[in-house]
């Protein structure tokens, strides 16, 4: 295996090269099979050259989260980052690289779940949206958790206990690959990797605090044949009518009955994961012929219905050479 190494930390690079000297050839980018880098400029060059990238983003402070976002915008999925206050040794960077090397024994490193926070203006359907997104992720095989930051979530009434993989009145859950954090109707601060801002077309409703320029914007209950300003919204959802009422009264998410809705939610998730800010989609109002019967949706599988299962950092200009702060092992 040929690896291009550029971490900006000579001591760490020397340790890695010595440790893997028998199984890896350290080459320039042009001849590499994989690139282990910690600068966005190097990552971009590797992507443009068609070389797979493993990106070391560093500490998940504000700058680190920005690094992760920008790496995903480049289409990089293999990103290593760690919580603030945590020191990461060179051996963990080695293990991160080893995951991509067939010649090196596998090393399992616990990873934190990816956190998607849904915020919404007052009574704009944020909880309903978060519930359906969670359902779609589970249907796709993700080990997803629904975390309601508010203890008074309407979801507790839409579903019957026990609540499987659902937590109320908290900001975290046990386990899971993805957490869908429903922060509707609450001002409790919650850290997240991505934010989805849900609103409807009522001009009297407004966010108490701006969701931020990086938020993914969803407009709910858009009247039929109404067009919203171009480039202002990532996902438009027309008024789903009785489908919403039936979802709330049967405990079956609308996405389980309306494939077009599920497909749009899946598309939004993929855009978030890849950093595709150009994503736009619209869910049209359904008719009876495009929806699945409730009994068929319940029979489809678990997770629906009222059942008992209930780094070296870069500046924004991409040219920072700041030290990554690795800790070498004895």
List the helices and strands and how they pair.
Elements: E1 2-6, H1 10-19, E2 25-26, E3 34-37, H2 40-48, E4 53-59, H3 62-73, E5 78-82, H4 90-98, E6 114-120, H5 126-139, E7 144-148, H6 155-158, E8 166-168, E9 178-182, E10 194-199, E11 216-222, E12 235-238, H7 242-250, H8 254-257, H9 259-274, E13 281-283, H10 294-300
Parallel strand pairs: 1-2, 1-3, 3-4, 4-5, 6-9, 6-10, 7-8, 7-9, 10-11, 11-12, 12-13
Nutshell version of this structure?
With 330 residues, the protein is of the alpha/beta class. The chain has helices at residues 10-19, 40-48, 62-73, 90-98, 126-139, 155-158, 242-250, 254-257, 259-274, 294-300, and strands spanning 2-6, 25-26, 34-37, 53-59, 78-82, 114-120, 144-148, 166-168, 178-182, 194-199, 216-222, 235-238, 281-283. Mean pLDDT is 82; it is low at 105-109 and 301-324.
Provide an overview of this structure:
By secondary structure, the protein is an alpha/beta fold. The protein has 2 domains: 2-99, no CATH class; 114-283, Rossmann fold (3-Layer(aba) Sandwich). It contains 10 helices and 13 strands. The strands form 2 sheets. It has an 8-stranded parallel β-sheet, covered by helices on one side. Strand 4 (53-59), helix 3 (62-73) and strand 5 (78-82) form a beta-alpha-beta unit.
Radius of gyration: 22 Å
Uncertain runs are 105-109, 301-324
Global mean pLDDT: 82
If strands are numbered along the chain, what order do they take across the biggest sheet?
8-7-9-6-10-11-12-13
Helix content: 25-40%
N-to-C span: 26 Å
Judging from the principal axes of the Cα atoms, what is the shape?
elongated
Order of helices and strands: EHEEHEHEHEHEHEEEEEHHHEH
CATH H-tier superfamily of the largest domain:
P-loop containing nucleotide triphosphate hydrolases
In DSSP terms (H or I, runs of 4 or more residues), the helix count works out at: 10
Provide the structure class: alpha/beta
Tell me the number of strands.
13
